[in-house]
Amino acid sequence: MARKPQTPSPRSDAAAAAKPSRKRSGRTQVSGSKPAETKSAPALTPVIGLGASAGGLQALTDFFEAMPDKAGMAFVVIHHVDPNHKSLMADLLSKHTKMAVELAADCTPVKPDHVYIIPPKEFLWIENGVLRLMEPPEPRGMRLPIDFFLRSLAEDQKQSAVAVILSGTGSDGTAGLRNIKENGGMVLVQEPKESAHDGMPRSAIATGSVDHVLPVAEMHAVISNYVAHPYIKQGASTKTMGENARGALSRIITVLKAHTPINFECYKEGTLLRRIERRMALRHLENLADYLALLKDSPEEAEKLCADLLISVTAFFRDREVFEYLAEHVIRDLVVDCAPGKPIRIWVPACATGEEAYSLAMLMIEKIEALRKDVKLQVFASDVDEHALSIARAGVYPDSIVGDVSPERLNRFFEQEDHSYRVKPELREAVVFAHQNILADAPFSKLDLISCRNLLIYLNQQAQERVIQMFHFALNEGGLLFLGSSETANNHEVYFKPVSKKHRLYKRVGGGLHRNFDFPITTNPVFGPTTPALRSAEASRGLRLAELSNKLLVDRYAPAAVLIDARMETLFVQGPADQYLKVPTGEASQDLLDMARDGLRAKLGSTIRRAFKTDQDVTASGTVTRAGHNVPVSIAAYPMVVDGIKLVLVTFADTPVIKASIDSEEGPKDSALHTQFEQELEATRLELQNTIREYELSTEELKASNEEAMSMNEEFQSTNEELETSKEELQSLNEELTTVNTELQQKVEDERHLTDDLNNLLSSSGIATLFLDRDLKIMRFTPATRQLFNVIANDVGRPFSDITGKIDDPKLLEDAVTVLQDLTPSELEVRADGDKWFIRRILPYRTQDGKIDGVVITFSEVTDLKALQQAYEGALQFAEAIIGTVREPMLVLDENLNVVKASHSFLRAFETTPEDTEGKALFALQGRQLDQPTLRKLLERILPEETTVEGHEVVVDIKGKGARTMLVNARQMKDGTGGRDFILMVLEDATERLEIQHRLEEREARLRAVLNAAPEAIITIDDQGIVTSYSPAAETILGYTAAEVIGQNVKMLMPEPHQHQHDDYIARYKATGEKKVIGIGREMNARRKDGTEVPIRLTVAEWWIDGERNFTGILHDLSEDMKRRDALQRAQKMEAVGQLTGGLAHDFNNLLTVIIGNLELLEMNLGDFPKKDLLQEALEASDLGAKLTAQLLAFSRKQTLESETVPLNDLVRSVQPLLKRTLGDDISVETDLADDLKLTLTDPGQIENAILNLAINARDAMPNGGTLTIETKNVTLDVDYAATQVDVEPGDYVALSVTDTGTGMKPEVMARAFEPFFTTKGVGAGSGLGLSMIYGFAKQSGGHVAIYSEEGVGTTVTLYLPPADKGAAAVADPGESAIPKSRNETILVVEDDPRVRRLTVTRLEDLGYETLAAENGPAALEIIRGNDGIDLVLSDVVMPGGLNGFQVADQALAINPALKILLATGYASGGAAAVGAAQNRHPLLRKPYSLRDLAKALRELLE
Predict the structure, then answer these.
(1) How many CA atoms lie within 13 A of 259 on its CB side?
(2) Is CATH 3.30.450.20 the classification given to domain 534-662?
(3) According to the UniProt record, where is the region Disordered (predicted)?
């Protein structure tokens, strides 16, 4: 029967409890509130809800790749996402569709062609087309976000909602899709065989609420057609149905009658039309005639329409508040008021899949236990849908019920299985499920409570009336009726009175005086659909009788009328009948004569009896007393027959009275009265005559009736005697039934124990067992079956062909059919995933009466037996292969050394026969060549002493082969049965092998010499990674001896992670041939014996010997190479930074040239200016800047070194006082100067700076004081040392070392010490350029710098400087002289910087020179060509215009060879400028230069 759950809002019950007021992202959300900013989405935007879990990403990408980009729909993806991780689903899906993909935000209106993704840590729901977010009740565990969203989608979108269930485990979405189906939406599920995980699809299919099961690629077409149907666009069934909907509806119901016993005429027309139109939308039909034709041709569609009309949807504890009220007020009273030992009887009609029946049973059991009463519970649950009843009887529900059932009740009444819950026996036995059509079958009786929720709303008025009367009949006095929230019994006060209008609870009132009702309901051709067949004279009444009466009365001008049956009981009253009838006092009666007013009864009775008797219309006149006056009345009776039942319609009408004229001319008043009395007297006389005749007839009838009554009395007495006898028989039968019932209960108990034993046996056996019926549908399976097939409890009843498995058995169903046909058991070995083997047996399923009712399939694991079998077969084949391939001669000897058996190889090798060999003495064979004392002695000791002979060498002369060296091997062969022992003797011809072995030994000796001499480590391994050889160089590099390594896995020489991955490397190469090292080589680290790592270059070669793969690895120690590589990288880094600093120095020198020159000019021109000391400070600051640029150039190795022949010892002694003042008293300065120290060619100023820098670094490293030692000596750097360094030439050097006793450096700090800007000092304590500049100065000087440091010991920095040529002498420092002036010479100034150019011209003019100026090389050359009076060209080196200073000088000399050239530069880098500077082709003046330096350089060139 139809039923509908009380669908909760997504915000009700548990969800509402989980949604408190909270603040999120600057917005406040309160339970039940709706923010003002919420906007509704477009009304006609269908929303598609997609649910997925494990394996769902692939399904979702396939779905959106197939879905058009302009589908006009909104898509909401609900997937299971870890709340602690960011969701990447939006990014992943955006790659597969052009639609906008975004994470859903709170208060987001859905838009067409958009995809919304549920964010982590949130529940998503929809209200008025707007997406809303809320925090889930639990952050983890059973959250069921898909169910939550689909419930809201169903409520919000109604028939426009579409749910899609894709791959996933568990059952999330199963409960929500029922709500989609109930509200008229469409449900699609991915084909389970296509999905990566079929748990969710299969759970959804098991509900029976799925419209389409499709591959993902086909879903887009079905959805597009559905949303384009008028059912979605218009939303009103009657519009689409057209004007002929009613007629077509009748024809559709007629078609359905051929497929179901349910009479859908009792349903409301709107419900029928909505469900029919939904089916039309699913079938993509818009014409009702086409759908009617489809129904006639497709039984499947008719069954689906019937299933849709039944609306089989329910839930546990729906309307939680109502059930709480029941538990506290209703059920408690029922238990309290129930007498001990008596049952409480409850009926749940239209129970669907049983959730509500189980809910009531749980409440009752809990209350009975709480009150500790001895009360039996009987819950009857009925429904017309057999599929829904099968689910209810099984009592298996998806794990989504955790949202409806509390954890305590789940633990108390359910057992968890896979992703489902099974009702425990205690609860299951309390509920009896029965197939029942509530409109056609008899009800249960003597009930205390009926729960029928949301059934009546689907029935028409007459069906509701009959169901209410049925409930009244079925309930005990005071019994309770529980209806749905949209239903009421308020219009039936005569049957029920409200107990709680809010919760729709009513109590039965009135005894058994109410009129009976008729079942089943059938179609009557006269009264139309849903009119019952009349059972007796009490039949046609109610609305249909009113229609008949109205028709007849209209034909007769509608007088007051009453319709009665043959017993004269009133069936229907029409018009002002109260003027002729009244309600009698006393017990209520429907007898018309009892209701007749005074004066009317006699005439009324005779008229009715005459109409029944004659079956003709009868009229009569009578009088009725009203207000004390007699009123003449006309009575008419119209007999009729309806469905074989005689009825009479009685009408009443007042007879008009013709008043006599009072005119005196017409006669006296007495005459008129006299005439009236005569008329009344005549009427009375006629009525009396009729009464006498009727009395006489009645007397005769009474006599006949009396005789009949006497006869019937005798029959009753006889019947009474028979009934007494039957009573005794019934009592006896009742006792027998009681005994049988007791025995039956005992058998049921025995069966239960037997079933428990069987279940435990099957579960404990570990054997996967399947029970299939004759249609190969699943009847039962053991838990072990789940390991081989993807079955769940809900799969019972499903075709086994729908189930996917993990076993390779394609002929399973074919063999099952064969067993059913031939009744011959089948057995086969099959293989499952994980390389497991099973014996699959199929046997007929035989019932106790010998009937074949299906098959039993068992899978017994034989993996171990299979392995043993394979091992045995392998060993046998191996032994046979050995015997067949061994070519050595073999003999079996007894204890007397006589030959028992000779192998074919022996007979063939020695060209003899078994007759000449077997049974003979060994030493008598082959001319007694084997009779050698040593061999005899060895063989004779084998059996007594259980010894063996291994490789004893004998020489035998074989015919045709000459002398052959044979190796004799012999051992005892024990007889396990206790018999004789034998000797197995093998003769191996080793002549060629010994020769080869000799040659191999010579070759191995040569190879060993090569290995011992090779500097690289050479290691060989087999294909398992076991070391087979290990060279001496390997011992040196790795520290292991050969004895420690050979026979071990080579991975012991590898650090992590290579050590654990090495075996996988070899296995992958052997499997795929992919080379990563072999023939390619790689650099890596090897592990020394002491645990340290050494860098190596590994080269591996593969080679084969005797069919076995081997590898040779050559390890080159990269320790020194790595040092050179690091030094090269450091030099390259310093070179790069040097390029940068050199460029900065060039620009800075130009600026300093301008500053210093102008300051000098100011100083010369100001005379005795009072603030002249300020100029001096500015000049000193500029000099400091010049020194800084000099340091930068030193660091970049681009400075102009003023190389001199310097005695380092003298220079050290000269700076020693400065060092003592700089370092302080707590640091002592010591020197160790070589007496024979060579002179060095270097810049003394840079040497002083280097010593000072190193001293300051040493001071910082000795915060608590210490010793600074400066040492000089002559050294020679050999070739080996130079090879480990970068840009170092071997040869003689002068070494200057500075050593401190400070904290020392860590290795990683020492490796970076020369890097520019690297410092370990605090902010402001050092620039990180000191050591870098020393490094640059040393390299520019053609020398080298080295550093050595130990933590806690100190640091030594050594400069290696090239020695001066022999015979060179130290240069004295000249004194300062006056600034030389001009002697009327002319100088051409070439400078691109205008400020430097102006300054230079001003300086020259102050010195008395005539000047010309040019801004670039081409302009200068033009001036030179046009002026022969130029004496000197002063040019910048780096200039724009295409010519640098050296190029200008060369071309100027070509024009005028007498010219003098002086070049000025701040930094010469790149191209011809750098080449010219390196070649010293022209004198260079380094910027910034002073006026004295300029004047001096000019005079030196001009003079």
Answers:
(1) 20
(2) yes
(3) 1-42
Catalytic residue IDs: 53, 80, 172
Q: Do domains 766-867 and 886-989 have the same CATH topology?
A: yes
Residues 6+ apart with CB under 8 A from 785: 768, 769, 770, 791, 859
Q: Which CATH architecture has domain 1201-1373?
A: 2-Layer Sandwich (3.30)
In what side-by-side order are the strands of the sheet with 1484-1486?
Answer: 1410-1414, 1386-1390, 1432-1436, 1460-1465, 1484-1486
Which amino acid type is present at position 872?
Answer: Y
Cα–Cα distance measured from residue 142 to residue 346, given in angstroms and rounded to the nearest whole number: 33
Cβ within 8 Å of residue 1207, ≥6 positions away: 1237, 1239, 1370
pLDDT above 90: percentage of residues in the chain:
9
Higher-confidence residue: 605 or 629?
Answer: 605
Question: With helix as H, strand as E and coil as C, how does 1421-1476 read?
Answer: HHHHHCCCCCCEEEEECCCCCCCCHHHHHHHHHHHCCCCEEEEEECCCCCHHHHHH
Q: Is the pLDDT of residue 140 over 90?
A: no
CB 1 within 8 A of CB 437: yes
pTM score over 0.70? no
pLDDT at position 513: 42
**Under CATH, what is the fold of the domain 1-25+39-228?**
Rossmann fold (3.40.50)
Dihedral sign of CA atoms 1239, 1241, 1247, 1251 in order: negative
Q: Residue 227 above 70 pLDDT? A: yes
How many residues in total does the chain contain?
Answer: 1503
Assign 843 a pLDDT band (cuts: 50, 70, 90).
Answer: very high
Q: What are the boundaries of each domain within the chain? A: 1-25+39-228, 237-313, 314-508, 534-662, 766-867, 886-989, 1010-1116, 1201-1373, 1386-1502
- Check: CB of residue 1167 under 8 Å from CB of residue 1497: no
Residues 6+ apart with CB under 8 A from 21: 28, 29, 30, 31
- Please tell me what DSSP assigns to residue 784: G
pLDDT value at residue 1187: 59
Whether the Cβ atoms of residue 456 and residue 464 lie closer than 8 Å to each other? yes
DSSP collapsed to 3 states, 474-536: HEEEEEEEEECCCCCCCCCCCCEEEEECCCCEEEECCCCCCCCCCCCCCCECCCECCCCCCCC
Q: Are 652 and 628 in contact (CB under 8 A)?
A: no
Query: How many whole angstroms separate alpha carbon 1478 and alpha carbon 1489?
Result: 20
Report how far apart, in Å, the C-alpha atoms of 273 and of each of 44, 457, 586 are.
21, 15, 50
- Residue 383: closest CA among 352, 412, 406, 356: 352
Q: Rounded CA gap, 1355 and 1300, in Å?
A: 6
Q: What is the pLDDT of residues 1411-1458, one digit of tens each?
A: 999 988 899 999 989 888 899 999 988 888 778 888 899 899 989 888
pLDDT of residue 1102: 85
The alpha-carbon radius of gyration of the chain (Å, integer) is 59
Q: Is the Cα torsion angle 1213, 1217, 1218, 1222 positive or negative in sign? A: positive
Contact call for residues 940 and 921 (beta carbons, < 8 A): no
Per-residue pLDDT at 1185 exceeds 80: no
For 1325, list phi and psi in degrees, rounded to 5.
-90, -10
889 to each of 361, 473, 968, how far by Cα in Å? 88, 105, 10
φ, ψ of residue 858 in degrees (nearest 5):
-120, 150
CA distances 1254 to 272, 714, 1319, Å, are: 102, 147, 14
CB 1280 within 8 A of CB 1243: no
- Asked whether the predicted pLDDT for residue 1357 surpasses 80, the reply is yes
Q: Report the b/e string of 514-524 with b at 16+ CB within 10 A.
A: eeebbbebebb
Q: Which residue has the tokens 């964010």?
A: 119
Q: Which fold has domain 886-989?
A: Beta-Lactamase (3.30.450)
Give me the pLDDT at residue 21, please.
35
Phi, psi of 435 (to 5 degrees): -80, 125
